[in-house]
Amino acid sequence: MKFSWAEYLDAESAIFAFRGKVTNKVLIKVIPLIEVKLFEIGAENFVKKRLVNVCIELLQNLMFHSYNDKAKKYKIPHEFAIVFENDHFIVVSSNLLENKKALQLKDRLVKLNSIDNEAVKFLYNIVIKQTYSKAAKGGAGLGLLDMRRKTGYPLDFEFELEDKRVSRFFLKVKIPNKGKE
Questions:
Q1: How many independent structural domains does the chain possess?
Q2: Is residue 67 part of a domain?
Q3: Which of 180, 167, 158 is nearest to 4 (CA)?
Q4: In a domain, 181, yes or no
């Protein structure tokens, strides 16, 4: 899959788009805006709940797992958008990662996408029980697994090498606009 970030930011079907640095303050302001937008378009409650949970997870990933560019060498902001197309909500995000972390993440995503939905649910239950204390602090690796479990779709992703230090990571999560609560 080749990402076209502009396609999502400029799409007429865009519900919400953000470009900048994600912080706690931004997260606290953005989530209610997303909820209002979903209410305005008449999204079902269970879809709103699922979508907001995925948005929180993606925004937290941008906040906690992005490359820390202390030298301000890279002028690439965090990017996040929600689009509605073909009866699905599409949530996309983009950020920089250290290349070493990008390789590890790619391996995890390939493995996660290789298993079926029942195996995802089973694995989630095992991981949540075994890593409960880690999950409370974050970093237990539940976020990607939880998004995959909640959406029922593989997570689309792409990495673009920026230089020998960092890569740009794109993640696309597809959420059905129907289904069981």
A1: 1
A2: yes
A3: 158
A4: no
- 46 inside domain: yes
Q: Residue 172: which CATH number?
A: 3.30.565.10
Cα–chain center distance at 57: 6
Strand residue runs (E) in the chain? 14-20, 78-85, 88-98, 156-161, 166-176
Q: Is 148:115 a contact under the CB 8 Å cutoff?
A: no
Residue 150 to residues 20, 60, 110, 129, 169, Cα–Cα distance (Å): 27, 17, 18, 18, 21
Helix (H, G, I), strand (E, B) or coil at 41: coil
Edge to edge, what strands does the sheet with 166-176 contain?
Answer: 14-20, 78-85, 88-98, 166-176, 156-161
Among 83, 85, 86, 73, smallest CA distance to 18 is for 83
pLDDT tens, residue by residue, 35-79: 999 999 999 999 999 999 999 999 999 999 999 988 788 888 999
